[in-house]
Amino acid sequence: MRLVAAAVLSLAALAGAARRPSANLKRQVSQLRDKYDFVIVGGGTSGLTVADRLTAAFPAKTLLVVEYGDIHYAPGVFDPPTDWITANPDSPPAWSFTSLPCPDMGNQTAFVQAGQVVGGSSAVNGMFFDRGSRFDYDAWAEVGGPEFANSSTTWNWDTLFPYFKKSVTFTPPSPDIAQRYNYTWNLSAYGGDTPIYASFSSFQWADQPVLAKTWTEMGLEHAQECAGGDKQGICWVPASQDPVTARRSYSRLGHYTDVQPRANYDLLVNHQAVRVVYPNGLASGPPLVEVRTLADGSLFNVTVRGEVVLSAGALHTPTVLQRSGIGPSAFLTSAGIRPLLDLPGVGSNLQDHSGPPVTWNYSKPYDFFPLPSEMASNATFKADATAAFNATPARGPYTLAGGNSAIYVSLPRMDPDGYTTIVSDIRAMVANGSAASFLPADLRGDRAMAAGYDAQLLAIANLLANPAAPSLETPWATTEVPYATAWSFLLHPLSRGTVRLNLSDPLAQPVLDYRAGSNPVDMAVHLAQVRFLRGLLGTPTMRALGAVEVGPGAAVAASDALLADYVRQQITLSFMHPCCTAAMLPRDRGGVVGPDLRVHGAAGLRIVDMSVMPMLPGTHLSATAYAVAEKAADIIIQAWRRQ
Ligand SMILES: Cc1cc2nc3c(=O)[nH]c(=O)nc-3n(C[C@H](O)[C@H](O)[C@H](O)COP(=O)(O)OP(=O)(O)OC[C@H]3O[C@@H](n4cnc5c(N)ncnc54)[C@H](O)[C@@H]3O)c2cc1C
Ligand SMILES: *[C@@H]1O[C@H](CO)[C@@H](O)[C@H](O)[C@H]1NC(C)=O
Ligand SMILES: *[C@@H]1O[C@H](CO)[C@@H](O)[C@H](O)[C@H]1NC(C)=O
Ligand SMILES: *[C@@H]1O[C@H](CO)[C@@H](O)[C@H](O)[C@H]1NC(C)=O
Ligand SMILES: *[C@@H]1O[C@H](CO)[C@@H](O)[C@H](O)[C@H]1NC(C)=O
Ligand SMILES: *[C@@H]1O[C@H](CO)[C@@H](O)[C@H](O)[C@H]1NC(C)=O
Ligand SMILES: *[C@@H]1O[C@H](CO)[C@@H](O)[C@H](O)[C@H]1NC(C)=O
Ligand SMILES: *[C@@H]1O[C@H](CO)[C@@H](O)[C@H](O)[C@H]1NC(C)=O
Ligand SMILES: *[C@@H]1O[C@H](CO)[C@@H](O)[C@H](O)[C@H]1NC(C)=O
Ligand SMILES: *[C@@H]1O[C@H](CO)[C@@H](O)[C@H](O)[C@H]1NC(C)=O
C-alpha cells in the first residue's frame, strides 16, 4: 500500500502529469523481468538519452535503467521562490562531495555536486547550455593516436557536430527581444527536434550591456554564434529551458516523460548498482548487474542478454567498476577487492574547471536598474517577477537562469609575450620525461598512464598555442555587493586527480583527490589569465564608473609569488564539471574504453557518460553529455543491427 501511495505521489509531481511516461516505473526488484537485453546503470543526462534511443530502435528488445534516485520535480536554477541562484528549496537531491585538501592550492578542498535523481545532473545544473570549441574535441582524436583516429568511430568535432545538432531543439528569440539585447545566433549550428530545449531569456539585468561594452573595449568581438565550433570573443549562450514556459529542460523530461510510452522500457528507481559480475570470466559477457535496494540493503542480480552500459557519471561510474574488480590492481588489493582486470585509468585522470575571481567595486554612483539584489530587497519587484514567470509566455528575471553570456579567450590573445614559454615548458616536460612525476604517486611508474599523460600534455600545449582555441572563460559578471566579480575559468587544466572507493565504506561516496595545481603549469596559466582579466578595470567604461579593484590589486598582480598566493586563497576548485575518469584512450595510454566505448578487456560492457572524455573541453558539460550519448547510442544501435 505504502509503495503504491508513494508511486502515485511522485507521478503527480510530474510536470506533464497528463502524459504517460515512456518507461514503466519499477520500485521493487520483484517487479522486474527475468532478463533484459540492455541494462543501463544511471538514469541521468547520458543514461536516459541512450535508453530513449535504444528502446525506440529495438521495440523487441527489453531495456532496464537502474537509478539511485527517484522522480522529482526539478525547478530551474533560478525559479520562484528563490531570490537568486543559491539553493532552491524545491531542488531534487544531489550528492555533495568535499575533496581531500589540495596541497598545491593552500590545502583548499573542492566542493562538487552531482544529481541523485532521475535526470541526473541535468536536473540540478546551472542550465548554461554551451558547447566547446572544435579544437577541444579534435584533441580527443589527437590523444587517441593513430589507432583511434583511423577507427570507424572516430571522435572529433566533425563527427560529434551532427550529434550536437540532433540532441537539442533550438528556438530563436522573437525579433523584438533579439533586437532589445542584440542576441545573435546561427541556425546552421542547430536543426534537431529532440525535446531537449535551448532558448534565450527575454530578460537581462541592467549591467549586462555594461559588461559587454567593457569586453569590447578590451578588444574582444561579439561572436555571431559560438555553438558551431568557433568559440571566441563575446558569446551568447542559450539556457536549457523551454522557450515558452522557461522551465528547466532536462533528460527526465526530454528522454522519458515527453516521449511516447514503450512496452520494452523499464526504469527501476531507488536502487544502487553495486557492481557488475562475470560468473564465467571477463570474456563471457555481458555481466550480471548486482543492485542494492536502498530501502533495506538487500542485493539482487539482474541478468542481461545483450550488454551493460555504465552511465553513473564521472564520480560514480569508477566506483561501480572498482567494486567489480576493474581498476588499478594495487589499489583494489589494498581495498580488499580481488582484481579481475588491471585498468589503472579507472578513477584516474580526474579533471574539472577551476579558477579565481577578479573583484572590484564602483566609487561613483551608478543607476543600473534592475540588478539581482532587487529580488531580495524589493518585495514588489519579486512579486512582479513571479507573476511574469507564471505568464504565457514566461517573462522577467526568473526566465534568466543565471546569465547567458560569457567571454572565451585564447592564451596567445591574453599573453602574447608569455604564452610561448608556457607552451615550451609543457613540451619540455614531455620531452625530458618528467611529466609523469606530476601524476598521483601510485601511477607515476605506470608506463601506460605516463604515455597517456604525455599525449594529453602535448595536445594541451597545442591548444594553448592556438590563437583560436579559448583557454579562459569568464561568464557574465555580476555588479553586486559587496563586490563585482569576474571569474577566470581555467579551461584546460594539466593537473590530474583521482576518484577512489572509500576503503572503510566502499558502498558510500568515493574519495575525491583533486590534486589541483599539482602540475605547476596550471598556476602559470592562472597568472596569465588573471592579469589579462584585470585589464577590464582600465577600460573607459569602468573608469567612467570609478571602478576600484578589490582583488587581486595592482601590487599583488605585479608579483608572481603574491599573485600565486592570491590564486591559492581565492580559487574555487570546482565549477561542477568533473570528468574523464574512465577515459577513451588506447589501453597502452591508460585508457578504459575504446572508440566504441567498450571497456578494454571486459565483454558486454560499455561506458557512456562524462567519464569517457579523455580531456575536459572548454565548456559546461551538459550539451556535450547529450551529444556524446547520442553518438554512443548510434554506435550501439549499429552494432546490434549488424548481429
Ligand atoms: C550543480 C551543478 C551545476 C552544473 N552546471 C552546469 C551548467 O550550468 N551547464 C552545463 O552544461 N553543465 C553543468 N553541470 C554539469 C553537467 O550537468 C554534468 O556534467 C552532466 O549532466 C553529467 O552527465 P552524466 O550523464 O555524466 O552524469 P549524471 O547526469 O550526473 O547522471 C548520473 C546518474 O547516475 C546515477 N547513479 C550514480 N551512481 C549510481 C549507481 N551506483 N547506481 C545507480 N545509479 C547511479 C545518478 O543518480 C545520476 O542520475 C553542472 C553540474 C552540477 C552538479
Ligand atoms: C597542508 O596540510 C599539510 C598536512 O596537514 C601541512 O603539512 C601543510 O603545511 C599544509 N599547507 C598549508 C599551505 O597550509
Ligand atoms: C591510419 O591511416 C593512415 C592514413 O590512411 C595510415 O597511413 C596509417 O598507417 C593508419 N594507421 C593505423 C594504425 O592503422
Ligand atoms: C546593440 O547594438 C547596437 C549597434 O551595434 C548598439 O548601438 C546598441 O547599444 C546595442 N544594444 C545593447 C543593449 O547592447
Ligand atoms: C552561419 O554559419 C555558417 C557555417 O559557419 C556560415 O556558412 C553562414 O554564413 C552563417 N550564416 C550567417 C547568416 O552568417
Ligand atoms: C550474483 O551472482 C554472483 C555470481 O554468480 C554471486 O556470487 C552472487 O552471490 C549473486 N548475488 C546475489 C544477490 O544473488
Ligand atoms: C571599495 O572597496 C575598497 C576596498 O575594499 C574599499 O576601501 C572602498 O571603501 C570600497 N568603495 C566603495 C564605494 O564601496
Ligand atoms: C521596486 O521594484 C519596483 C518594480 O520594478 C520598482 O518600480 C521600484 O522602483 C522598486 N523600488 C525601489 C526602492 O527600487
Ligand atoms: C624538464 O623540463 C621541465 C620544463 O622545462 C623542467 O622544469 C625540468 O626541470 C626538466 N627536468 C629534467 C629532469 O630535465
Ligand atoms: C570514509 O567513510 C567513513 C565512514 O563512512 C567516513 O568516516 C570517512 O570520512 C570517509 N573518508 C573519506 C576520506 O571521505
UniProtKB/TrEMBL annotation:
Keyword Plastid attributed: no
SUPFAM superfamilies for the chain: FAD-linked reductases, C-terminal domain, FAD/NAD(P)-binding domain
Binding site for FAD: 45-46, 117
Signal peptide: 1-17
Record: active site: 577 (proton donor), 620 (proton acceptor)
Gene Ontology BP term (one): secondary metabolite biosynthetic process
Keywords of the record: FAD, Flavoprotein, Signal
Family per record: Belongs to the GMC oxidoreductase family.
Required co-factors: FAD
Flavoprotein among keywords: yes
Name of the molecule in the record: Glucose-methanol-choline oxidoreductase N-terminal domain-containing protein
Pfam family, one: GMC_oxred_C
Recorded GO MF terms: flavin adenine dinucleotide binding; oxidoreductase activity, acting on CH-OH group of donors
Residues covered by the Glucose-methanol-choline oxidoreductase N-terminal domain: 313-327
